[in-house]
TrEMBL record:
Residues at the active site: 328
InterPro entries: Ala_racemase/Decarboxylase_C, DAP_deCOOHase_LysA, De-COase2_C, De-COase2_CS, De-COase2_N, De-COase2_pyr-phos_BS, Orn/DAP/Arg_de-COase, PLP-binding_barrel
Pathway: Amino-acid biosynthesis; L-lysine biosynthesis via DAP pathway; L-lysine from DL-2,6-diaminopimelate: step 1/1
Quaternary data: Homodimer.
Protein name: Diaminopimelate decarboxylase
Every Orn/DAP/Arg decarboxylase 2 C-terminal domain range: 17-355
UniProt family annotation: Belongs to the Orn/Lys/Arg decarboxylase class-II family. LysA subfamily.
Organism of this sequence: Arcobacter defluvii
């Protein structure tokens, strides 16, 4: 659907994020439908966009949640995702988080090292609980994506190798406080090639079968997230082929398939909208300066990520420029060396594919308030997070001024 960015700017000011909730529904239904031949759980990766209304929308559709902090677990619970659909992942869980996850009785804890497994066992014992465990396998597979968002190689900090995993499953089996229920694997984000996913699913399902042979029967295989989206002209993985290539490895296993998409659900549902403040020319370099900045959307600065940009005016005079924000860093840009038309003060600029890892990675750098977030559903807009004020930003420091 087309969104009237101008109307929203008049109503909510700029910069803002706007999310098309109907698009999120479509993405969820598409993926869930692709797995229809099996029991499946789509556990939305909350880190991609953790706005409560976004999670609630997915909860209403039946999604579970993949969380990487107890804060994310609590967000998911708050909007009605049942504990039995919540997974807790991450390489560095602290004791208090493990304790709370056990008390909240979530579906499973994704354990990422043998040291962590010992810790979970100890804490479960202290609480008199049995911890449902899934172990994250690092299959040592190159996902062919940006190195910063690649996670499935031994050189990355994530998961454990197969032999370690086997030992850990046996430890679970022999423990009174651990119950091995799942196996997990996530090789990276923005995946556009099916082959590395196929290979890693094969590796983990082989291990599931090996374990079955020694009477360790798992109920869940979590194939991670990472399905890519269109930023520019990427050719995407077909969701039916994706599901098919996973399911064909499950033959003869009584397993619920779990996947944890973040970007796929919300990435292309979101647009970041900012307005032009000034144009300037340094030497012969043209800059278009907008009111949004790297603290609002850091992906270009952090990964040199491409986001399609559109100036919303009818001017036909295009020339090269850098689109930059007001923050005091040369890394504060949205796009470099792109052709944009001549702009005027207050022209709107839409930065697309910004629904995932946009707002959630934003900060208050330069004492800039986090921006407003808006939902569009059935053609109607509503505010789902108000713009931060100066008072919001200083609230946690003010009382300590001496
Ligand atoms: N599961 C696990 C264990 C993960 O680590 C991640 C993402 C996901 C699922 C969801 O991945 P997705 O489907 O969203 O690709 N900030 C980066 C992406 C970092 C991804 C971190 N882990 C970006 O802006 O591209």
């Amino acid at each position: 659907m087309s969104i009237n960015f101008k109307e929203l700017a008049n109503k909510y000011q700029t910069p803002y994020y706007v999310y098309d909730f109907d698009y999120i529904t479509k993405q969820y239904e598409e993926l869930k439908g692709a797995f229809r031949a099996r029991k499946s759980l789509i556990a939305y990766a909350v880190k991609a966009n953790s706005n409560l209304s976004v999670i609630k929308h997915l909860a209403n559709l039946g999604a579970g949640a993949d969380c990487v902090s107890i804060g994310e677990v609590k967000r998911a619970l708050k909007v009605g995702i049942p504990a039995y659909k919540i997974i807790f992942s991450g390489v560095g869980k602290i004791d208090e988080e493990i304790k709370q996850a056990l008390e909240l009785d979530i579906l499973m804890i994704n354990v990422e090292s043998d040291a962590e497994l010992n810790r979970v066992e100890l804490i479960a014992k202290e609480l008199g609980k049995i911890a449902r465990i899934s172990i994250r396998i690092n299959p040592n597979i190159d996902p062919q994506t940006h190195p910063y968002i690649s996670t499935g190689l031994h050189e990355n900090k994530f998961g454990v190798d197969i032999d370690t995993a086997k030992r850990m499953y046996i430890q679970c089996k022999n423990s009174e406080n651990l119950d091995p229920v799942g196996m997990h694997c996530h090789i990276g984000s923005q995946l556009t090639q099916l082959q590395p996913i196929k290979e890693s699913v094969k590796i983990i399902t082989d291990l599931v079968r090996n374990l079955k042979a020694i009477k360790i029967e798992l109920s869940f295989v979590d194939v991670g997230g990472g399905l890519g989206i269109v930023y520019k002209d990427e050719k995407l993985i077909d969701t039916n082929e994706y599901a098919q290539s996973i399911l064909e490895n499950m033959f003869g296993l009584d397993i619920t398939v779990v996947c944890e998409p973040g970007k796929f659900m919300v990435g292309n549902a979101g647009t970041f909208v900012t307005k032009v403040l000034y144009e300037k020319v340094n030497g012969n370099k043209r800059f278009v300066i907008v009111d949004g900045a790297m603290n609002d959307l850091i992906r270009p600065a952090l990964y040199n990520a491409y986001h399609r940009v559109e100036v919303l005016n009818d001017n036909q005079e295009f020339s090269d420029c850098n689109l930059v924000g007001p923050v005091c860093e040369s890394g504060d840009f949205f796009a470099k060396n792109i052709k944009l038309q001549k702009t005027q003060h207050n022209d709107l600029v839409a930065i697309y594919s910004a629904g995932a890892y946009g707002f959630t990675m934003s900060s208050n750098y330069n004492t800039r308030g986090k921006v407003a977030e808006i939902a569009i559903e059935n053609g109607k807009d509503r505010l789902i997070r108000r713009r931060e004020t100066f008072e919001d930003i200083i609230a946690l420091e003010e009382e300590f001024i001496k």
